Every structure is written in C-alpha cells, then in structure tokens.
Fold these 2 entries.
Entry 1:
Amino acid sequence: MLLELEHGIVFVQQAGQTLYMPPFCTHVSMGIENCTSAYYYVATATQFPAALKHIPWRVAVIRREAPEMHQTQLADYASAILYTLEQVLRGDFDKALNIVALHKNMCDSWNENKDKVYALCAAIEDPTKADGFKDGFKRAWIEFLERKCVLQENGKKLATCQLCKNPINKMSGNKADRLVRHFLQKHWPRADANGVQEAVDKVEIARFTEGKAHQIGKARKGA
Ligand SMILES: [Zn+2]
C-alpha cells in the first residue's frame, strides 16, 4: 500500500521519536507492525488568531470522522477555543510575546471570523451548552474591552473599543452599559433580523451589565 502513495513525504518513525507537525498539515499515519502511538495538540498564542478561520473545516472533520460522538467532540472543541481565547485576551501566557501585536491580531481575527465561532456554538444541539459557550465568548470579549478602556483612561488616553477603535464617549447608553451594548450590537453576530432583535438586545444588555449600574451608583454616592 505504501508503494501506491504519490507525492508528499514518507518516513518511518522509530520508538521514542517525536514528530512535531505544523498546524493544518494534512497527514496520515500507519502502523507497519504492532505498536503504540500517542499524540496531542498544542495551541500556541501566536497561532491562535489565525486558527479561527479554520473552524468550519474542523467542524466538518468532526462530523465526518465521529458521526456518533460528534456532539461531544464539538462541545470539546468549542470549549478548547473558548479557553484559549480567554487566555489570549487576558494575556495569560509567556510574557516574552509581543502582547500588543497579538491582541491586534486577535481583534482582526474576531472581526473576520466571529460568524464562524457563532456557527460552531450553534452546531451544538443542547441549547443550554450552546448558550453557555455563546455567553463565554461574549464575557471574554466584554471583559477584555472594558479592561483596555480602563487602562487607556488611567493613561489619560481616549478610551476606545479595541475591535473598531470607536471612542466610548461617542457610544450610546450610560457608563455601565455602553460598551456592552456596543459589543453586542456591533461585534457579536446578529442572530435575528426579523424585528425581534431590539427586544433580544434589551434583555442581553441588561444581563451583561447586571450589577454594574448599582456599583456605579454606589461609587458616586460614596464620592
Ligand atoms: Zn467596536
């Protein structure tokens, strides 16, 4: 069978050897005698922004390779994407990396690929799990955008949305909800375009700003 293969590179791996594969490199491995192989995936912060564009490809592979188990695997995949995104946005990794450039790449990738992330969540049939992942992505971004605005304000700079560079003082809404409203309306895929979006937005904005208006009121009172 090996002799029938064309193109590519063929080699025999010996016991104790490890092979590092670049991302999205098509490959096949075959045991030519009884043996045990083990593999694992490593997500790197620098590669992660570009990985979002491959989500539909990975979803298709999961559906094809594991028809019985595909719901479990889709949930595992969504969980891994969310976990890595949270770490990248928090800057929770090797500090030697250029975090400013990485966050810019992450923002560009989100602007380009957010519909793919949304479609991954929507492919999960259990509505509680699917909503849990959607909320996770929203929270990760809202926290990141708010943190960056606070940093800009502390540095006496004009606070802007990292995803589109719009200044927050030009956004509609009050201090507690304007960035949440902006993110949900401009940077989260619009699931509904049939007239009920406004009602959905109201509930969503209230949910993600819960407690904040109270905190701001308290801070003002105390000031
Ligand atoms: Zn924005």
Entry 2:
Amino acid sequence: MGVAINEVAVRHFRRQGWVRVPALHSRSQIDTLLATMAKGFADPPDVNETYGAASPKTPGDVVSNDARDGVLLTVRELQLYHADVRPVCLDPRVGAIIRALLGADQVRLFSEAYLDKPPGGPPTPWHQDWPLQPFDRRDTVNCWVALDHVAMDQGPLQVVSGSHRLGPLYKPTDFSQQPPLDTMLSTEDRELLWSLAGPEDQDIDGMPVHLAPFEAGDAVIFYGSAVHGAPGNETDRPRCAYSRAIISSEVRYTGMPYLRTDSVGLRPGQPFDLPRYPVFATEEAAGARASSGESRT
Ligand SMILES: O=C(O)CCC(=O)C(=O)O
C-alpha cells in the first residue's frame, strides 16, 4: 500500500500542528495492541529494568506520576518485551506517514504508552511533551491511536491548533502542580493560534481546539511541541489508547535529565541509534524481508 497521506494533510499538519488519520490501524492490529496492553497491565515491566535507574537529580514528569493522579493508568515500552506486537508498533505504513509529515528520510520509534483513562478519570491537563524530552530539534510527533470507540464524554484526546508554533511553554513535571495554561499564554499567543485555526476548531479555554470522537484504529498525529490534553472520562467504560513518540533519525540527544534516557547509554550529541529505538522500515524493505522469509516489521 502507498503512502496514505496527501499534500493537503501534510500542509494541515505543518500549519495546525496535528492531523487526523482515520483507520490508521486495522481491527487485527487493534486486537494485538489490546491483548498486549492486557498482558502489560497483568505483569507490568519493572521501570528500572526498562530504562535503567534514573539519575537521582532527574525531576519526575507527568508521565511517571499519572497513575497517582488518577488521570491515566499506563504501561510502557511493551514492544521491548512482547515480540508479537512489534510488527504493529513498527507498521511501515505508519512510518511512511510520519516521514511524509516531518519531511524526514527515516524515523525511529522513541517510546510507547498504553493508556487507560479509567471511568471517572479526571481531565488530562493541557501540556506539551517536548519540554520533557531530551531532543535537540522539533522533528518529533506523538501518534495517539484510539483502541476502542471513544465518545465525546469519554475523554477523546484534544489538541490546540497552531500551538506547536509557541515554543516550549512549561516543563510538565507534575499534573497536580501544573499552572493553568491561561496564565502562560499572552494575547499575542492567542492571536497567533486563532490565525492558524481551522473551521472545525472549537473555542475551549479561549483557544482553537480540535476535539472529536474516535473509532477504534483512528489516530491523531501531532508535533511533540503541540499543546494537548483530554476531557475527563464521564462514562463507566475505560478509555483505552496507544500513544507512540516517533522521531526523525536526525534528532540528537541533548543530555537533558529524563527518566527514560538517563541510563540507556547515549552521549549528548549522539543520534538515538540504539536497538531500543528501532527505525521504521520502508514498505519496500519490509515487503522484501517478508518475501525472503524474515519477520515483517
Ligand atoms: O490520553 C491522554 O489523555 C493523554 C495522552 C498524552 O498526553 C500523551 O500521549 O502524551
């Protein structure tokens, strides 16, 4: 299958900082992700084994304290432990889409999170992922995929249009202590956001926001620098999603303290050229490997 993204979608992504991709993953891929997520929650990998021990000086971050706040229950990096999910995580079609969006020759999987916003789970506060991450440039995305139908009252992921143009606003180390986004945006910031808004964007907190329900397999792909969050889950059904950070292979490690990279063996200035950050194969390479009998990734 060819690249499932066109020029209009690429332009939308670069202008508004996000793009919706319906049916990014098939039903059988979703089933594999859900089965892996269930295994991950039943037997969660030890964090120190997954990443090595973080430096004692490294601050916490929202993605490590989410369970405590009841915002999200999370298991991470399951492709390191469950080989059968790798072909889904590294689907060449996903790689082709991200390469086109970023204008990159090659992209790598940086991290994975399997997210359960439980019934009654509070809103995910507005935040950017990028200020937490030790990346020397902005060529990174979050690819958030619904693993089930996500209704409007169940906390669908929402993204502030144009917010990737604002630069890093705040390092989100703890959702419970996060200042409201209102206090971080100037009048000029809001003018910029509205100048980039699309006709479908809703006015939420005075900002143009993309907020819409998802079917299982639908994705929203956004720059790591885009402000995003989610309303609370007001239903009695868990809201399950799969979120991947994917980076251009050009991105270099800055050495900034970060729980997930302190001990993986990178030196500042190096690309993320380690087996734990696999490159997405092109569809041609994956097809050639499959026909020569190797496993398809
Ligand atoms: O699923 C959510 O509510 C938030 C997810 C998120 O912030 C992320 O994937 O970076």
